[in-house]
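Student: I would love a firmer grasp of how sequence relates to backbone shape in proteins. Thank you; the sequence and its tokens follow:
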Amino acid sequence: MSVRSIFSLPIALFLGLFIHLDWHLARHEHDGRSLGWDAHWLLAIPIFALAARRIARRWPPPDNPWRPAALTVALGILLGQVIEPLGEIIHYQATLADELEPARLTAFALFTATGLVTMGLTLWALAPRPSSGPC
């Protein structure tokens, strides 16, 4: 089984980018890189729905899109919530406590939970239904 067949790197990069962008939308610091938007998590709805649609199209029946979706989201989370903060720690010489403050983790949890629910509902809605015969 090839790596290409178990997850989507472009979609994972897309999700990782928006997981990081969400932090800039959510935080209330006034450093020129933040918006302080309390409803930042709403952005997860179109982002994860689009990702789910692409995954459902890439793994159509009889393939099961749930496993590639889970692995793609996991990679996106790794990129956006682990690798990117580590890059900031190295680049800005920040501390782990600075990068993983409670506000950031809360914003991440809201965005990701909303996104996972959206992705699950989208994949479910796009799944083919067995026909009950001619009506």
